[in-house]
Design goal:
Length: 111
């Protein structure tokens, strides 16, 4: 089973950037598709983007052009680079893979 450990997040002003990291362990990483999700209080967790085993990516319309997902198979890591952040990006962000979830990390964007 995959275990996921997240790092990054924090506070930033609108227009700023943050990078989240997610380290996977427990099985071969290079074959795993990874996803990023976010959740705000009172709302369902929503899809942010994903990356497949060969580096192909998909993004929610709300973050397309601002967020970039990448992976480093040698380090068993996936990254979510968030640029041009908006207050509406404020949420707890999660990485996910094969039914496993990271613990979540808060991202706060102030106006």
């Amino acid at each position: 089973q995959v275990q996921l450990v997240m790092s990054g997040g924090g506070w930033v002003q609108a227009g700023g950037s943050l990078r989240l990291s997610c380290t996977a362990s427990g099985r071969s990483f290079s074959n795993i598709a990874m996803g990023w999700f976010r959740q705000t209080p009172g709302k369902e967790r929503e899809f942010v983007g994903s990356i497949n085993s060969v580096g192909g990516t998909t993004y929610a319309d709300s973050v397309k052009g601002r967020f970039t997902i990448s992976r480093d198979n040698a380090k068993n890591m996936v990254y979510l680079q968030m640029n041009s952040l908006k207050p509406e990006d404020t949420a707890v962000y999660y990485c996910a893979a094969e039914g496993a979830w990271g613990h979540g990390t808060q991202v706060t964007v102030s106006s």
